[in-house]
Amino acid sequence: MPKGVYTRTEKHKRNIKKVLRGRSLKPKTLKCLKCNHKLKEIEITSSRQKYCKKCKKEVRRNQKKIILQKFRKDNKEKAGEQRRKDRMKRRAIENNIIETFTNKEWLEKLEKTKGFCPECKKWFGVARLTLDHIYPISKANADFLKTGIKRVYTIKDVKPLCLSCNCKKGGNFA
Ligand SMILES: [Zn+2]
Ligand SMILES: [Zn+2]
User: Fold this and answer.
1) Which end of the chain is more exposed for a tag (fewer CB within 10 A), N or C?
2) Treating both helix axes as pointing N-terminal to C-terminal, what angle do 137-147 and 53-95 enclose, rounded to 10 degrees?
3) Are 139 and 173 a contacting pair, CB within 8 Å?
4) How far is ligand 2, taken at its centre, from the CA of residue 127, in Å?
5) How is domain 95-169 classified at the architecture level of CATH?
6) pTM, whole model, 2 decimals?
7) What tens digit of pLDDT does each residue of 88-119 get?
8) pLDDT digits over 15-28, tens only?
9) Which residue ranges make up each domain of the chain?
10) 75 Cα to the center of ligand 2, angstroms
């Protein structure tokens, strides 16, 4: 018979049945692998049981905990990596535009809003409003890569927006 070809004979089938029957049989005695507590017959539910009821719960809880910890750690690393990438991308873009307004000018513009977002008219407070480039910097960056001319942003080319309006706007020219 060539290697890898397997035909089930009656003998094989009988053997499998025997193995399965053996598995479903409850052993008379079992010891908990964790606390070494000798299980009573009534506590045994399967021949593959490893722990007593109490320890089983604990083992399950620990397994869940480990899985959750790993999941959280992986996610944290992923989020951190994304933030790093975003920051680098933004820095690259900021090198390809020119901002000609001063901090003072920007603060004055912020104060004028009295903390209200000019777009959605909700109040956020001056400190929570973000700087929005009216012509998106992603487009300005694309223009620069095409033409080699850096776009100049004066104080008139930026406006305060709340974070949610700024995110909604994204790369769209408003
Ligand atoms: Zn136990
Ligand atoms: Zn808003």
Assistant:
1) N
2) 50
3) yes
4) 14
5) Orthogonal Bundle (1.10)
6) 0.54
7) 988 999 999 999 999 999 999 999 999 999 99
8) 777 766 666 566 77
9) 52-91, 95-169
10) 29
